[in-house]
Amino acid sequence: MSHQTVIVLDFGGQYNQLIARRVRECGVYCEVKPYTTPLTDLRAMNPIGFIFTGGPNSVYAPSSPQADPEIFRLGVPILGICYGCQLLAQNLGGKVTAAAENSAREYGKTETFFDTACKLFQGLPAQGITWMSHGDYMEKVPDGFQLCAHSAACPNVAIADEKRGFYGVQYHPEVNHTEHGTDMIRNFLYNVCGAAGDWTMGDYKETAIRQIREKVGGGRVLLALSGGVDSSVAAALVAEAVGRQLTCVFVDHGLMRLNEGDEVEAAFQKWDIQFVRVNAEERFLSKLAGVSEPERKRKIIGEEFIRIFEAEAKKIGQVDYLVQGTIYPDVIESGAGDAAVIKSHHNVGGLPDYIDFKEIIEPLRLLFKDEVRQLGRELDLPEYLVMRQPFPGPGLAIRVIGEVTKEKLDILRQADFIFRDEIACANLEETMNQYFAVLTNMRSVGVMGDGRTYDYTLALRSVTTSDFMTADWTRIPYEVLDRVSVRIVNEVPHINRIVYDITSKPPATIEWE
Question: Quick check: 468 pLDDT over 80?
Fold first, then answer.
């Protein structure tokens, strides 16, 4: 079954993936495509609508990102957000200029007034807060467009040509700060684009199973199993598709949390799948010796994973396909097209140039984390596995800042266990989505037993998030943080200082490396 599709055309804004999340939350499938995507490719996707994203540029600048002008003649509805709104105006006969100081330039939460007769705002309050972030101003609105929202500083916060299905908003409806923002996107999808709401995880499961069967045929499949949510859901999906043609290989690279390798093996031995555990601690640590640069760590780990999978495949016999639990945020952060590389994920940007498999299958590649969890439930995975907090493929190697050694890993394992244990004892697991310890490369002076110490500083990190594209730091009660700190300093050698990371994403990433 083919889904109705909305294309989010990416002009470099910081919230672009959040737009995609909001569209999917409304039951409509969408994909994010760079603005450089040829119009023939976009047309071939048969979209029911386009959403132009924000971006840091000015549309009137000579080098600014532009859309193919023919896109406005396809007869497909368009919603322009911030830069996308101004791009719409500039291309259709309007004029965009830099806003004068203290005039139509707006940033942050802004009281906004809406014309609820406009399809974009039907059924919504006539007044609310929107999140603005624009320094340019539509000096002239294109012919055929009506003003349908305003603020005290800006008369044209939103414009609409309802005859052609073109809408533009100067604010960001995709962020939580904008009241009823998701409802506005839903109105565009259903009232303007005529969406049917045919994007469901149940349908995705059946489609993915069919596609995997068609691709694999009678071939053999090796799946890179970490025991985390993504690879576990991928394993259940592929097992449903090809059964005993699948072999799951769990590589214990010595970078796991305390006792985790044994726990993963125990969990998956209960499944009716072929399971292989490879103990490779010495191999990985020798490759990582002397390496402190984060991107280099990730690439080393990515290559070693692949080489081990290739070796295991040869033991099994002819294996054509390698399955990975890659998800959409992995792809985005590893960089694609003009997108910046935030960090190379070992299973995406960290892959070596040559891979001895016919093809890599990534059945979750277009799913966000919460969609993966929904799919897991569709596959009847137990809730404890579906809701397990993420653990990165490179493991503790990217939670040890600087060079990775067995000594540092053992220190971090103990400290991380205590942190997680105290969170569990306080019944706080459901108030946060990911929490862990980081062994920094910084040493500081301390006093223990009336003597001077000079030991490591440990950082604690906890975030709450729905999609792992953005995240807020968790407000853990002080008394819990105090118990964690006291236990770690008293029970774990070589740590004499504990700090708590109170940075959200953005500007930080969730992991430190």
Answer: no
